[in-house]
Amino acid sequence: MNLEYNVFSIVLLISGLAAFFMSVMVFQRMGGAVRWFGFTMTLIAIWAITYGFELSSTTLEQMLFWINLEYIGIALLPAIWIIFIIKFIGKDKWLTRINTILIFIPAILTLIFVWTNKWHHLHYSSVDIDTTGPFPLLKFERGIWYWIHTVYFYVLLFWGLCLMISKFRKADDIYRKQNNIILIGALGPWLVNLIYLIGIRPFEYIDLTPYA
Predict the structure, then answer these.
(1) Residue 83 — very low, low, confident or very high, per pLDDT cuts 50/70/90?
(2) Which of 33, 54, 101, 115 lies at a C-alpha separation of 20 to 30 Å from 167?
């Protein structure tokens, strides 16, 4: 596989590896709800590393290979995030078997639709390669399922943030600081992603969310 690394891809690969090692430390040293934070970091690492390889790819076939792996992180992240938040605030009883299944159904469907997109074009209505810049980039038109997944993504994000804010208001000072860190850490990437979705892009075909 012929890969040509650039500044954008190298930064992602380094940050992805850092996120992966952070998740390993969480798994080794912590238990309970915080382990789900480790799962969250693992998915972020998958997203960043595979996107780094996508940005290093020189053919459309390579890019689609990496984006299929990339979506393991993207699709599952909202579900793992909300489970982490629910466990973190001590509401484990909400996570019944049926509720957990319902949380994961859209994520699993997203993976299936991305991996089989060439047959139905529900997630990407078209994909192509852009060679007008300093290195090749994947360009695509969004399909109906892309927007359904985006709504699912932001509903779970917003729900998690609301739960955290509610806990933040009632928590002692020491826990309030922890909640504040999580809130700030969560808001950054999602605000960047929202800006990307509405079309404010300094680099047209580069999604800056994993960098945030």
Answers:
(1) very high
(2) 101
pTM score, two decimals? 0.86
d(CA 133, CA 63): 16
CA 108 vs CA 19, 77, 85, 160: distances in Å: 23, 11, 20, 20
Which value, in Å, is the radius of gyration of the alpha carbons in the chain? 18
Q: Are 130 and 139 in contact (CB under 8 A)?
A: yes
Q: How many CB atoms within 10 Å of residue 111? A: 18
In whole angstroms, what is the distance from residue 129 CA to residue 66 CA? 14
Distance of alpha carbon 160 from alpha carbon 125, whole angstroms? 30
CA angle 127, 200, 48 (to 5 degrees): 60
Q: What's the angle, vertex CA 94, arms to CA 165 and CA 105, rounded to 5?
A: 100
Q: Which 3 state secondary structure label does DSSP give 30?
A: coil
Which residue stretches of 5-141 are H helix?
A: 7-29, 34-56, 60-88, 97-115, 117-120
Instruction: List, for residues 159-212, the tens digit of each pLDDT value.
Output: 988 888 887 776 666 566 666 666 666 666 666 656 656 555 545 566 666 655
**Two tokens, residue 15:** 């940050």
- AA identity, residue 61: E
How far apart CA 76 and CA 114 sit, in angstroms, is 13
Return phi, psi of residue 3, to 5°.
Answer: -115, 140
